[in-house]
Specification:
The chain is about 40% helix and about 10% strand. By secondary structure, the chain is mostly helical. Keywords: DNA-binding, Transcription, Transcription regulation.
């Protein structure tokens, strides 16, 4: 399911907000908003930008980490995984 990188969170949609956010972030990465091995915005910034709870943002990031789109460096942030890297 393709999600528009400019989409907003729809709290009335059947897709849970964390899945919507994961899709939006993945679409923004695909569009080139964040380059490989570069950090995405912090959890706090994503909480403010999308109006979600920190736990929801963390869950969305965890989905993308599990899918191999992002990786986390403790005390440094969450980074875009280079394409083709597993």
């Amino acid at each position: 399911m393709e999600i528009d990188p400019e989409a907003r969170i729809d709290h009335g949609a059947p897709l849970p907000p964390y899945r919507q956010l994961a899709g939006i972030l993945a679409a923004r990465i695909e569009r080139g908003d964040w380059q490989p091995n570069r950090a995405i915005p912090s959890e706090s910034q994503l909480v403010q930008e999308y109006g979600l709870a920190r736990a929801t943002v963390r869950r969305a990031i965890a989905v993308l980490v599990e899918q191999g789109v992002l990786f986390v460096v403790p005390q440094r942030g969450t980074f875009v995984k280079p394409a083709g890297e597993v």
